[in-house]
Amino acid sequence: MDGVAPSKRGTQPVGEAATVAAGIYQLKVPVPIPLVFVSAYLVEGEDGWTIIDTGFDYPEGRETWEVGAKAVGCDLRRDVSRIVVTHFHPDHLGAAHWLQGISGAPVCMLESEIENSREIWDNAGPALFVEHLVGNGMDRPLAERAGAKMRMGLTLPEKMVSLRAGEEILLGTGTARVVHVPGHADHQIMLHDEERKILFAADHVLLKITPNVGSWPESEPNPLARYLKSIRNVRDLPADLVLPGHGPLFHDLRGRIDELLRHHEERLELMRREIEGAPKTPFEVSRKVFRYGLSLYERCFALAETLAHLEHLVLEGRAEKVEDGSASFRAV
Length: 332
Known about the structure:
Elements: E1 17-21, E2 24-30, E3 37-45, E4 48-52, H1 59-71, E5 80-84, H2 90-93, H3 96-103, E6 107-110, H4 111-121, H5 127-135, H6 140-150, E7 160-163, E8 168-171, E9 174-180, E10 189-193, E11 198-202, H7 223-233, E12 241-244, H8 253-274, H9 282-289, H10 296-315, E13 319-324, E14 326-331
Parallel strand pairs: 4-5, 5-6, 6-7, 11-12
Antiparallel strand pairs: 1-2, 2-3, 3-4, 8-9, 9-10, 10-11, 13-14
């Protein structure tokens, strides 16, 4: 089975913008991590332009914004009415402070995500992150290198406006509903234009790759359980065009969600087999389940995702957690 097919829209190179629907443009903003680019969206409306997500704040990203916005007819210094950020990760929130500085536009996020972002980024530091990695089996020198690279500070926008789950906001020539979809991030949102059947899916439903659903120091309990529940909840949304935060655009939301549900059940069973017999740490399991040759950044995400799956096995009664210096898990 070939799986859900990508759309023929949004095939422009990284660094360029393209029309993906009437009045909606995708800008592929380069990011200095293995994902290569984040998809930001510019939506033209009578009250001005809405920007959805921003990328990291670094020179190549800023240049892409300057050139890409101009190419679609948006003057970043005069035409932007609002900036919507779907979640706190730096590839989505990172350049919001800079974009607000040049545009004067408010940055809109789910109310709880504003609080969460302040808690994480205003108090950024590697100590808690390093102990989390070490406590789940990573050796300390490697964990300290990861902490130094991944928990640097992020400057938040000064003016942030709260969104509420279920509310409708002006978007282009119509409206979109704010949909809270925890899992990849506890306070992540999507925007759903029901009339036009367009879904701005953020990192909740991606094609070709699966969203990282991981247990991090700041995560609420059982992220995989919340992710599986939330993708089931949006499976039947009327959406003929899905605009994700990474990877290809696509059209079959229900088909892709069914693929993701199967993927996670297969991944859970694979991990359960890895912990049969002697207990293993999440880091040991991640080295077996995920491919070798990962960057340090990718190793951390593999560990977080492994931990979320092992915790889910415990929640289902298919494994138990063993505390012996660092956390270990074994099948039951």
